[in-house]
Design goal:
With about 80 residues, the protein is an alpha+beta fold. The protein is built from four helices and three strands. It has a domain of about 50 residues: YefM-like fold (3-Layer(aba) Sandwich), CATH 3.40.1620. β2 and β3 form a beta hairpin. It comes from Thauera terpenica 58Eu. This is Antitoxin.
Length: about 80
């Protein structure tokens, strides 16, 4: 794992470089010489927070319209009640 440190100015001028560096490890972004933000890959973030993807998160993803999702309809029929 590689740790990269960038100033806010370097980050603003080279965001794509920062994203590539984040694939190798965390990128610390400084503001006036002090660490202010951390950029990391989404996989690292999920691993760090131990988040599990739920159906609501999956359905909110960009590009969801490209995924076929046609669940079968469920029919719930009433059952007779025995009051004896």
């Amino acid at each position: 794992m590689t740790i990269t440190t960038l100033t806010s100015r370097e980050f603003n001028q080279g965001a794509s470089e920062a994203k590539r560096a984040a694939n190798k490890g965390p990128v610390f972004i400084t503001d006036r010489g002090r660490p202010a933000h951390v950029l990391m890959s989404f996989e690292d973030y999920q691993r760090l927070t131990k988040q599990r993807r739920n159906i609501a998160d999956a359905l909110a993803m960009p590009g969801i319209a490209d995924i076929e999702f046609d669940p079968p309809r469920v029919t719930i029929k009433p059952r007779p009640v025995d009051f004896s």
